[in-house]
Amino acid sequence: MAAPLGRGQVYVISAPSGVGKTTLIGRILTKLPFVRYSVSCTTRPPRSGETPGKDYHFLSREEFQRGIGEGRFLEWAVVHDAYYGTDGDLVNRWLQDGWDVLLDIDVQGARQIRCAHPQSLNIFILPPSMEVLEERLLRRGTESAEQLKRRLAAARDEIMEAPWYDFIIVNDLLHEAAADLESIFRAQRCRRFCQSWRVAPFLTPDDR
Fold first, then answer.
1. Which residue segment(s) compose the domain that 165 sits in?
2. What is the number of other CB atoms lying within 10 angstroms of the CB of residue 82?
3. Residue 200: inside a domain
4. Contact 155, 199 (CB under 8 A)
5. Contact 21, 136 (CB under 8 A)
6. 205 partner at 20 to 30 Å CA-CA among 49, 113, 150, 190?
7. What local confidence, expressed as pLDDT, does residue 6 receive?
8. Does residue 101 lie within any of the structural domains?
9. Residue 95's domain is classified under what CATH number?
């Protein structure tokens, strides 16, 4: 599908770990051909099964720091001694070509994006409850008891940021949450300022 006309829209999606954000994003991307997914950059080494360019753009520490100095990143942070960030050069190129761009970033990065792109639309994914979130994290079986405790504490802190987001979706039933998320993207495309180029030909005086 060719890129649509006009400048694209930035979407930011955030959620605590274990809510199911990655699964939701995967579902809607197959249905929204006008959306480009921004793969984050990082200086940490690839993990088993990760594909460069698909999971992350893996950069050296020197290249990342140089990018910071050159203003390359829309947002960046240091997490567990590794740099993570969003490549602003690529995002802006997509936007200028008319693509909508989806950013999967944490609440800290979302604050930076709201400054760089004040017109961005921000979506927060909530669990049905903290009890459900704990059950989902337990089922993953990837955290020790102490790590699980830290995850839940971090989740509570992140959820405190939810009121600053434009949309809030509760991921209780996956298919319903995916439908809600997809509807936000589609509704935005139908707004008057996004479709004005389609209306214009109808408003041109008929010379016949």
1. 10-195
2. 13
3. no
4. no
5. no
6. 190
7. 62
8. yes
9. 3.40.50.300
Q: Which residues have C-beta within 8 Å of that of residue 158, sequence separation ≥ 6?
A: 14, 15, 16, 106, 107
Alpha carbon 163 to its chain centroid, in Å, reads 17
């992350």: which residue's tokens? Answer: 56
The pLDDT of residue 48: 82
Cross-strand bridge partners of residue 109: none
What is the per-residue pLDDT across 122-150, written as a single tens digit (0 to 9) for each?
Answer: 999 999 999 999 999 888 877 788 888 98
Query: What span, in angstroms and rounded, lies between the C-alpha atoms of 147 and 117?
Result: 34
User: In total, how many domains does the chain have?
Assistant: 1
Contact 133, 152 (CB under 8 A): yes
What lies within 8 Å, CB to CB, of 28 at 6+ separation is: 35, 178, 181, 182, 185
Q: For residue 29, is it left (φ>0), alpha (ψ between -120 and 50) or beta?
A: alpha
SS3 annotation, 66-131: HHHHCCCEEEEEEECCEEEEEEHHHHHHHHHCCCEEEEECCHHHHHHHHHHCCCCEEEEEECCCHH
Place of tokens 């996004």: 194
Angle at 29 between CA 27 and CA 34, to 5 degrees: 155
175 lies in some domain: yes
User: Residue 4 domain-assigned?
Assistant: no
Whole-angstrom distance, CA of residue 137 vs CA of residue 78: 24
